[in-house]
Amino acid sequence: MAAPRRHWIPPAGLLTGFAAHGISWIVLLVLAVRKPFAVGLPALAWVHLVALGWLTMIALSVLVYVIPTFTDVAWKGELLARRALVVYACGVAALVAAFWWQALPALPWAATLVLTGLGCYLVPAARILAAGYARPRVEAAIARALSATLASLLVTAGLGFILAWALAGRLPSSVIVFGPQIHAAFGTIGWLTVLIMGVSTQTVRPITGGRSRFGWAHAAAGGAEFVGLIAMAAVSHSAKRRSLGPELSRSPPERFSTLATSSTCYVGRPSRIGRRRRSSGAAPSGFWSGSLLR
User: Fold this and answer.
1) Which among 36, 135, 187, 280 is least buried, having the fewest CB atoms inside 10 angstroms?
2) Model confidence pLDDT, tens digit, residues 262-278
3) Are both 125 and 195 inside the same structural domain?
4) Domain span at 67
């Protein structure tokens, strides 16, 4: 009897992400017609449905194939990682439902389920990435970049876990003062933005047939993103502790200069690749243009 086929990318994970994407539009419509509109727990349900249920679910599913392929290291514990996606999906569904119906006592347990699933996924992934550090230069660089990106995801989930327990009244309410902004920054910048930058950089070259002479620009962009992220988190925490909320908006150039540098380095590299691209069809040109609009 033939062994069951194992897809490179878990189809159930992709389908779950696509379903979350579709549901997110329905939820957004319901929120939009509510009178009066308020940014409360139901709005957080939509945010986490998009960030966790759609984007992160699809990203983790695709990384099942990307991590071993880009690092040239075979999976160790692939079955655990694939099954962890089921636990993660159940946790996200419970978390979104708890936010939507404002069931605060259920939030910590839903967050615990999300963190458990994510942890079970990251353990075998970390083993691959650690082995990738000993690979040739390109594979080792990719392993380091993926490690930093997944570490940001873990930090985001850990902060979300703490915030969920604080919202349920199990931890000091002071956590809610400075935690959400840092939680959101790590999730949107350290995880999703840097991941998109890395994947688009690795794929734009084979799709367009062009190359860049400045390979260091991608590493500089990612490094600047993380430096800016840590600086934002430190400033936010310090300002909130001293009740200096308005201070955060008084000097944006100093606060976000590293993020601006990162964007410049990132946009510059696809631009040079685009000028050297050999494939001029609609699909390569569209992908190249999309990478610039990141």
Assistant:
1) 36
2) 455 544 455 554 555 55
3) no
4) 7-143
